[in-house]
Amino acid sequence: MFYRPEDGHGLPHNPFNAIVTPRPIGWISTRDAEGRDNLAPYSFFNAVAYVPPQVMFASTSAKPDRDGTKDSVANIRETGVFCVNVVSEALTDAMNRTSGPWGREVDEFADAALEKAECKTVDCARVAASPAALECRLTQIVQLPGEANFVVFGEVTGVHMDDACLNDGRFDVTRYNPLSRLGYMDYAVVRDTFSLQRPE
Questions:
Q1: Phi and psi dihedrals of 28, rounded to 5?
Q2: pTM of this prediction exceeds 0.90
Q3: Nearest to 143 by CA among 51, 194, 79, 77
Q4: Which H, E and C letters describe the chain, residue by residue?
Q5: pLDDT > 80? residue 110
Q6: Distance of CA 133 to the CA centre of its chain
Q7: 7 CA to centre of own chain
Q8: What is the spatial distance between Cα 182 and Cα 200, in angstroms, rounded to a whole number?
Q9: CA–CA separation, 61 vs 26, rounded Å?
Q10: What are the tens digits of pLDDT across the range 113-129?
């Protein structure tokens, strides 16, 4: 099968995000200029550089009360900071709850019964139960073609790791089983890993 996206695929559901899988989930916490906290998951997320460490996430839809985008991007525009919280298998239901189309006044931490912890290098809350969190300062927001497509880039200024996830000096994902996004309404959990040596 071959199709041009501009012509449509003819399938019952769009296969694009099922092809680009698995994708890590960026559970983005922000705080607006008035001090209200927000938490939402984004499946277009990844690390993009080592030195200095940098990450990105993309927001691809909009809310009527947020000037062409969603709460996360709007809050980051106001404050210039955010935090990426890693989603473990144990946090699946809470993460899903925070994906709802709630109003800007809703604190998703409270709505999903999640304990907050304050970040150390930025003015933002983080998910206390997350196995790792990356505190970030905004470097740029890039608008992509399309009505509400924005990519947010941030430099990591602080890193939190659960000590229970450290194994012989390595951050061991099998100790918390990260959740990943597949296509459609599907997810996967990382349970098994293997190593490969690069050729020299």
A1: -95, 120
A2: yes
A3: 77
A4: CCCCHHHCCCCCCCCHHHHCCCEECEEEEEECCCCCEEEEEECCEEEEECCCCEEEEEECCCCCCCCCCCHHHHHHHHHCEEEEECCEHHHHHHHHHCCCCCCCCCCHHHHCCCCEEECCCCCCEEECCCCEEEEEEEEEEEECCCCCCEEEEEEEEEEEECHHHEECCEECHHHCCEEEECCCCCEEECCCCCCCCCCC
A5: yes
A6: 10
A7: 30
A8: 33
A9: 16
A10: 999 999 999 999 999 99
Distance CA 160, CA 172 (A): 14
pLDDT tens digits, residue range 22-39? Answer: 999 999 999 999 999 999
> Cβ(126)–Cβ(29) under 8 Å?
yes
> Quick check: 138 and 152 in contact, CB under 8 A?
yes
Indicate left, alpha or beta for 197 from its phi (over 0: left) and psi (-120 to 50: alpha).
beta
Tokens of 34: 């008035």
